[in-house]
Amino acid sequence: MKLLHINHDKTRLLIFFLGFYTDENCFLEFDNQTSDILFVYDYSNTDFSELSYFDFTPYVEINLIAYSYGVFAANIAHSYLPFEINKSTAISGTIYPIDENYGIKPKVYDLMLGAFSEDVINNFKSKMELNSNGLIKEAKRSLENLYMELKNIKNYVLENEIKKTFDFDTVILTKKDRIIPYSAQNEYWINHKNKVVLDVGHFPFFEFKNFDEILEL
Q1: Has this prediction a pTM greater than 0.85?
Q2: Residue 193's CB: how many other CB atoms inside 10 A?
Q3: What is the pLDDT of residues 18-38, one digit of tens each?
Q4: Which of 62, 61, 70 is nearest to 43 (CA)?
Q5: Which strands, in side-by-side order, build the sheet including 36-41?
Q6: Confidence tier at 184 by pLDDT (50, 70, 90)
Q7: Phi, psi of 98 (to 5 degrees)
Q8: How far apart (Å, rounded) are the C-alpha atoms in residues 6 and 16?
Q9: Res. 178 pLDDT band, cuts 50 70 90
Q10: pLDDT digits over 104-148, tens only?
Q11: What pLDDT is recorded for position 133?
Q12: How far apart are CA 66 and CA 7, in angstroms?
């Protein structure tokens, strides 16, 4: 896990758990600087204890967004966030990263891991970018790092029982998703009270001007 703190000298903080492949470069254009941001990404290890040492005391309001595999990560990591979250939103994901019903199917995941290469990553990016507004910005992460992220997530799933430990206020489902199927998202969140369905692919952020619009849903 890695942390990156973007300081705008605000008393609001957005904790943003990113998905596989991504880093802050994919999202900075949606930062309208109304909050400081703590990006959490790179799940090549799932030790989130470093969050315990971050200084949250300057903030009077703390919000949380979790995207794709960041939903899985936030569900694990929230025990290291010993305070109340004001508003939380899950986007294009569930707490199950690899699952027959609620995530990427194990066979598909294993094929991606077994054939891992730059071509696999390029294919992954093409499946994310189903939006007429253009491509997301490139993440600056090495191929080796991305492979270790996939491998570690699989090891975590094999070695741990995944249970829901955090309740998101809002969930955003992506109907044209080619990464985590809409059917899996919908099945997992079927009974959620505040569910928003967008007719877009896995990267729905171009539907919003900034992070505040997401949190206002």
Answers
A1: yes
A2: 8
A3: 999 999 999 999 999 999 999
A4: 70
A5: 2-6, 36-41, 12-17, 61-67, 87-91, 170-174, 195-198
A6: very high
A7: -130, 110
A8: 11
A9: very high
A10: 999 999 999 999 999 999 999 889 864 555 567 889 999 999 999
A11: 58
A12: 19
- Assign 3-class secondary structure to the chain: CEEEEECCCCCEEEEEECCCCCCHHHCHHHCCCCCEEEEEECCCCCCCHHHHHCCCCCCCEEEEEEECHHHHHHHHHHHHCCCCCCEEEEECCCCCCECCCCCECHHHHHHHHHCCCHHHHHHHHHHHCCCCCCCCCCCCCCHHHHHHHHHHHHHHHHHCCCCCCCCCCEEEEECCCCCCCHHHHHHHCCCCCCEEEECCCCCHHHHCCCHHHHHCC
- Domains and their CATH numbers in the chain: 2-215 (3.40.50.1820)
Token pair 């900075």 in the structure block, residue: 28
